[in-house]
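In response to the reviewer comment on reproducibility (Comment 2.3), we provide here a single inverse folding case reported in full, input and output, so that an independent group could reproduce the run without further information from us. The structure tokens appear first.
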């Protein structure tokens, strides 16, 4: 899929240089896509989100966060003498997603967009939910969660009987090295692995489907959650996960959907676009709807 938009550079609120692909449209509504582990802003299903926004007549920003790739170097464009950092999925700090979203929201505000829908994919779901819980940004009108998998369960299944030993080893190591793991992302720093899977960790608990998901009741805006029927990174049936999530919603306008496709919704792009567009329409976020 060829994407046509404006390539933008912008700072996170700590000055770290980020980039994204922006489509502008009349009105105040914009979708903000936050990718998952090892991806970038235009990794699938980002292009589907971008094109559905164009078709619906709303703006969209595909954000490439500091979690992009496995190990990625980032700098500070406004402070050229400041030392660069190694981030990417292996080294990012989960809580820094707030800084990245600060920058994306500020960029869109400078272009006149203040009715935002944060669209997270995979670990991007944890990031947009955490952002809403921590900031309750007044600009955010809704969340869309695409394939919010349980990272702790995913890694436990991938590592099998060695999970406990790997976690114990990671707790004792520093952050300057990486673990070569037999799992979906491969390399992670010990600290990053602990963030993902440690019982009681913020990130690990957000979509712990063995838990109660009570934190979702603190998300005040409407939420759409979508899984693909071919989702590979779950330990429970999709219908069960969606039912658990639906029972935890606070806003009655929230919805769930299951569509064709895999973890990145390949093969189900049209159905995903239809589900998200319908949700936006129900919330009066499409052109011609009440502002």
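Designed residues, in position order:
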């Amino acid at each position: 899929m060829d994407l046509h938009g404006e390539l933008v550079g912008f700072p996170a609120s700590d000055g770290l240089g980020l980039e994204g692909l922006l489509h502008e449209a009349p009105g105040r509504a914009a979708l903000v896509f936050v990718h998952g582990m090892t991806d970038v802003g235009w990794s699938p299903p980002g292009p589907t989100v971008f094109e559905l926004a164009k078709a619906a007549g709303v703006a969209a920003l595909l954000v490439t966060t500091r979690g992009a790739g496995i190990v990625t170097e980032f700098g500070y464009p406004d402070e050229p003498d400041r030392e660069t950092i190694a981030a990417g999925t292996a080294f990012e700090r989960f809580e820094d997603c707030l800084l990245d979203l600060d920058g994306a929201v500020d960029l869109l505000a400078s272009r006149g967009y203040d009715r935002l829908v944060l669209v997270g994919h995979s670990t991007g779901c944890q990031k947009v939910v955490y952002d809403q819980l921590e900031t309750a940004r007044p600009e955010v009108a809704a969340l869309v969660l695409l394939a919010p998998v349980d990272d702790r369960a995913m890694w436990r299944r991938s590592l099998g009987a060695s999970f406990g030993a790997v976690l114990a080893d990671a707790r004792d190591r520093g952050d300057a090295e990486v673990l070569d793991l037999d799992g979906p992302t491969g390399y992670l720093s010990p600290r990053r692995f602990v963030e993902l899977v440690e019982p009681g960790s913020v990130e690990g608990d957000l979509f712990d489907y063995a838990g109660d998901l009570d934190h979702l009741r603190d998300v005040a805006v409407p939420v759409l959650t979508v899984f693909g029927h071919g989702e590979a990174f779950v330990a429970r049936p999709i219908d069960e996960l969606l039912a658990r999530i639906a029972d935890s919603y606070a806003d009655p306008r929230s919805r769930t959907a299951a569509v064709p496709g895999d973890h990145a919704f390949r093969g189900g792009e049209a159905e995903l676009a239809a589900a998200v567009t319908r949700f936006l329409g129900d919330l009066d976020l499409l052109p011609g709807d009440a502002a």
